[in-house]
Amino acid sequence: MNNKNLLARSLAAVWHPCTQMKQHEQFPLIPIDHAEGVWLVDCDGHRYLDAVSSWWVNLFGHNNSRIRAAIQLQLAKLEHVMLAGFTHEPVVKLSERLSALTDHQLGHCFYGSDGASATEIALKMSAHYWRNEGHEHKTQFLALAGSYHGETLGALGVTDVALFRDAYAPLIRMSATIPAPDLRFPGTQEGSLTALENHLEQHHQHLAAFIVEPLIQAASGMIFHEPEFLREAKRLCEQYQVHFIADEIAVGFGRSGTFFAHQQAGITPDFLCLSKGITGGYLPLSVVMTRHSIYKAFYHDNTARGFLHSHSYTGNALACSAALAVLDIFESDNVINANRERVPALNRLTKPLQHHPAVKQFRNRGMIWAFDVTGTSSDFARCFHQAALKHGVLLRPIGHTVYFMPPYTITDDEFELLVTATLESLDEALS
Ligand SMILES: *Cc1c(COP(=O)(O)O)cnc(C)c1O
């Protein structure tokens, strides 16, 4: 199939996500033929550095030989079996290893296929727990302003992004939000905690859970807060008997600098949602982990007290084998320490960006870099994205915030190239 043909057929037959399709009258789709390491290669041989890890999923580069080998081994044995009434080694091993990574505090793993499903599972499990415990009025949720927890109807109820939500407002049971902590603005952390305490005090009898993206509110523009915020928020939730849900779909698996972001606060959430990086970007998989005291409230002779939620692909064996390969890489390459040791040198490479007159609030946490651009038009994100593509880099700013979330396997040279292309794209987008 020649490229022109492929693009036309894609526009005719494929409804692309997060896209106003009409904009493709001006901006062509990019047909990717293959990929290697941080590089996506299109059908004409143009290369694009995947600086957003293909929407934050790809941790160890494309065409990773170790993940591929693990999937191939599993593929020859068992691709899938329904997980109700059956089990298999990859799902058992994965659950045990994830549990060990929480110091066995979160010993029960419930699987879904994507991030939004994990959010749905955590919300349902929390409310159902309270019902089973005789607190059937605890059915409300609380989220931070600017939160993003996925785009199914239940998840949109705790997602505070107007563009994704407003068209569906009549279909959604909206949760309350409190102001978010934001390290760019002093005092917001204290303000947020005060609002949390007030809300808990007034509404705890109806509140099942508080859901948070620990340390980094990613989709609303890489907004950072301190571990101290999580520590205090968790303490308040415990005091008022409200569950604390850590949505680490974006920030888990080392992105924040530790394996899980909540570890930096020394807390254990009641529910931990994981997806995105879990299979290194190979196959869809998500999981919600919880502690034994919550699991126990469902364990009963009465069927309806059980958690009867299900997805057809729950615990898919191929996806679990990819996730096991990802955990193997973390262990054998000591990825968390290796990343930590690299960050100072990578930060030095960003100096020219930090000194750019239009760049404000340059920030880094773990393997995330972000900065705000001043003097932009409302069209900045699209202009910058297009300019970056011309310079061989895939970047998708959020509003006027540009961020890097590259695969951990990016080399120093590739990172330097990314910085250079970003500078050039910035000047183009601003001119
Ligand atoms: C991406 C994301 C989700 C939703 O995951 P999907 O797989 O896109 O449904 C939920 N929460 C956070 C924090 C995310 O970044």
Walk me through what this model shows.
This protein has 431 residues and is α/β, with parallel strands linked by helices. The protein folds into two domains: 3-63 and 334-430, Aspartate Aminotransferase, domain 1 (Alpha-Beta Complex), CATH 3.90.1150.10; 68-332, Aspartate Aminotransferase, domain 2 (3-Layer(aba) Sandwich), CATH 3.40.640.10. Helices cover 38% and strands 16% of the residues. The protein has a seven-stranded mixed beta sheet, sandwiched between helices. It has a four-stranded mixed beta sheet with strand order 1-2-3-15. The two termini are 38 Å apart. The site of pyridoxal-5'-phosphate (PLP) has 15 residues, from helix 5.
The residue-averaged pLDDT reads 97
Number of strands: 16
Strand order of the largest sheet: 4-12-11-10-7-5-6
| CATH architecture descriptor name of the largest domain | 3-Layer(aba) Sandwich
Which bin fits the share of residues in helices?
25-40%
Uncertain parts: none
How many angstroms separate the termini? 38 Å
Gyration radius over CA: 22 Å
Shape: globular
Note the total helix count.
Answer: 15
Bound molecules: pyridoxal-5'-phosphate
Largest sheet: 7 strands, mixed
CATH homologous superfamily assignment of the largest domain: Type I PLP-dependent aspartate aminotransferase-like (Major domain)
- Relative strand content: 15-25%
CATH topology of the largest domain: Aspartate Aminotransferase, domain 2
CATH class of the largest domain: Alpha Beta
The SS-based structural class is alpha/beta
Count up the domains.
Answer: 2
